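FW: tagging you since you asked about this chain on Friday. Here's the raw sequence from the shared folder, copied in full. Didn't touch anything.
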Amino acid sequence: MAHIKITQQRSRIRCLKKHKRTLDALGLRRLNQSVIKEDTPQIRGMVAQVDYLVHVESVEGVKTTRPARRAKS
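HL: got it, structure written out here
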């Protein structure tokens, strides 16, 4: 499946609470921070809601598997 890279370009100060929660749900906490998400209609809707705060670009060749965590002894 395709992936998109979402970068927060503008500050969340003086934004609506709803938009701040949307940025949190996308995983964006700081200015110029980027996250890579699957390109789904749900993510696209969230991005459309805060499009004045973020920059979106498509990304190819992303591996989504994470290595298993080791249990603490």
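FW: The chain has one domain: 3-59.
HL: agreed, and The mean pLDDT is 92.
FW: great, closing this out.
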